[in-house]
Design brief:
Blueprint (H helix, E strand, L loop, with lengths): L8 H19 L4 E2 L1 H8 L3 H9 L11 E2 H12 L5 E6 L3 H7 L2 H5 L2 E8 L8 E2 L2 E2 L1 E2 L3 H8 L3 E4 L3 H14 L3 E4 L12 E4 L2 H16 L1
Parallel strand pairs: 3-4, 3-8, 4-7, 8-9, 9-10
Antiparallel strand pairs: 1-2, 5-6
Length: about 210
């Protein structure tokens, strides 16, 4: 399967989990792992692990399992993280500032190269060694820098308008922290992070455990 757009979202999410676990194993100098061990670590069945990997080719060897370092490299190639991606952050409030300073992005191949905001009090200030630029500059800077990914951390009432402008500027992937469902054209990916929904799910799970 060479076309990443044809990878089902659940599979893509699991690939990211596999890579995170494999990176930890590599750092611990673990040379190999089998599908059951990897699945147990992530609460995924060994059959699902094998099925996911078989979608992209043959990575393991019967009786030997998977070699950790080569598998990490293969997964990064499949996911497109074996290269550096330039990323724009839109919204330089507390969340945007924290995300702009998050060092793990660079470790994963994502480099923050531009930060935008509409607040005159924030525009011109420095965030993670980047001068915050006005949102109006997005349509010029994003195509100029050939940025394809954006992190959106703006209020809900302006999120769709900002999204439309990002897409018009050439953005094809958005990590959305605004509490709203975004409408985007085909070919543009959106991954939303909803803190309140995550807490609701945790509260529900906690209530189930209590009862």
């Amino acid at each position: 399967m060479s076309n990443r757009q044809s990878i089902p979202k659940p599979t893509a999410r699991r690939l990211s989990l596999y890579l995170r676990e494999l990176d930890a194993l590599r750092d611990a100098n673990i040379v190999s792992i089998n599908s059951k061990q990897l699945g147990d670590a992530l609460d995924i069945t060994s059959a699902q692990v094998r099925k996911d990997f078989a979608t992209f080719g043959t990575f393991g060897r019967p009786g030997l399992g998977y070699m950790v370092v080569p598998l990490c490299e293969q997964l990064r190639k499949i996911m497109g993280t074996n290269r550096t991606w330039d990323v724009a952050v839109v919204g330089a409030g507390k969340i945007g500032q924290a995300l702009s300073s998050y060092s793990r992005f660079a470790d994963r191949g994502f480099q923050i190269v531009a930060v935008f905001d509409s607040n005159p009090k924030i525009v011109g200030t420095m965030v993670a060694n980047h001068q915050v630029r006005p949102v109006a500059d997005m349509t010029r800077i994003i195509p100029l820098r050939k940025i394809r990914l954006a992190v959106l951390s703006v209020p809900a009432h302006v999120a769709q308008d900002v999204t439309d402008r990002l897409v018009a500027s050439g953005i094809t992937g958005i990590l959305n922290f605004a509490p709203i469902r975004l409408s985007v054209p085909e070919g543009v990916g959106v991954s939303s992070v909803d803190f309140s929904r995550s807490l609701e799910q945790l509260a529900l799970e906690t209530m189930v455990e209590i009862n």
